[in-house]
Design a protein that fits this description.
Layout lengths: L8 H19 L14 H15 L9 H13 L11 H12 L5 H20 L7 H13 L15
Helix pairs in contact: 1-3, 2-3, 3-6, 4-5, 5-6
Amino acid sequence: MDLKTKLGSNFATKLNIIEQEAEQIWKKGELYHVYYTLSWCRPFKICYQILEKLTDGLSSSENLNETEIFYLLSAAYLHDVGMQCKYTDDEERAARISELKKRPYTFQDLIRDEHHKRSGRYIKENYKNLKLDHIESEIIRLISEGHRQEKLDSKDTKISQ
């Protein structure tokens, strides 16, 4: 099943915008983690292949609807953009963590450990550029943040108002 072909023109257009935005983020050429590839589409392609395999085995009563497909594909594009988000206090925070752990801990380690939350923050702060409404952005944010094995039912993982 080709998930993209299941999208109507409205969602297909929005997904195209998200794809272009994700491509721009990755093409900036900044790399904050030495073990991460700069190939912007690789994380999406891997997720897309997995989603294709997962949804291929669904029965007709379990098939995803167009909205669900849009949310999943959008999150697939955006789930790792946090790897490209460096904040001004990252090095200071990493140094404090390094002292607490009594071992080297770099700002790259911090970015890797927090990238799912940074992806969520990016989505939340840029939902208008992504042409998403508030509800769409919150759902995509939660899926993106959840890819790092977050407990989605915890009090820390909630829809923001």
